[in-house]
């Protein structure tokens, strides 16, 4: 299967190409902008693999959660290419991508959601398969339950840098992980092989947080920071 993947839920933008089992990626940290780099990166990867755009079998994207504008960017690029090439699309949760990079085993993921909150979820990682134990949610760090002791949890995600008190009981803590297009592609490939791709019109970001316009009083009431 030839699969392209986009990830732009954070400042770490990336594009990946999985071609006959070989995975390539382009990535960069961008404080502002960077959206114009994604399609040229894909063209570079296609040239390296010596295949045409029309040889793609599917498009995957990091569905989120994360920065709303970034989520819409990856989803929109995936939809645009899929419509033009008549291909299936698959959105992959970015928290799963972080868990995949940190696994195998039990993995707790926390991504900084700003406004005194974190996106979080818990998984079991087996090879390139990630099983959800607790669904993605957005909460104040003070509301996150401790990890069950003695089970060998790995805690990861950039929220561990912003909130170092999180999950101190984890056996291993990796704070600098973020979603990548390569991880999105690894997760998407077996799912697309099982026919889980959808029509481009059905693709949508996974926002998790309903609004970024909470008042200070609302954030404090939820346990967030002022």
What does this structure look like?
The chain has 226 residues and is α/β, with parallel strands linked by helices. It has two domains: 2-93 and 179-202, Nucleotidyltransferase, domain 5; 95-174, 2-Layer Sandwich (Nucleotidyltransferase, domain 5), CATH 3.30.420. Helix content is 27%, strand content 31%. It has helices spanning 38-49, 68-85, 94-102, 159-162, 181-193, 216-221, and strands spanning 2-7, 12-19, 22-29, 58-64, 89-93, 105-114, 117-126, 129-139, 154-156, 172-174. The strands form two sheets. It has a five-stranded mixed β-sheet, with helices on both faces. Strand 2 and strand 3 form a beta hairpin. Helix 3 packs across helix 5 (181-193). The longest helix is centred in the middle third of the chain and has 18 residues, at 68-85. Mean pLDDT is 91; it is low at 213-219.
* Rg, nearest Å: 17 Å
State the helical fraction.
25-40%
The overall strand count is 10
Name given to the CATH homologous superfamily of the largest domain: ATPase, nucleotide binding domain
The N- and C-terminal alpha carbons lie at a distance of: 48 Å
Q: Secondary-structure element sequence?
A: EEEHEHEHEEEEHEHH
Overall pLDDT metric: 91
Shape: globular
> So what's the CATH class of the largest domain?
Alpha Beta
Residue fraction in strands: 25-35%
> How many helical stretches?
6
Question: What is the CATH architecture descriptor of the largest domain?
Answer: 2-Layer Sandwich
Largest sheet: 5 strands, mixed
Structural class by sheet pairing and helices: alpha/beta
Order of neighbouring strands in the sheet with most strands: 3-2-1-4-5
CATH topology of the largest domain: Nucleotidyltransferase, domain 5
Total tally of structural domains = 2
Low-confidence sequence ranges: 213-219
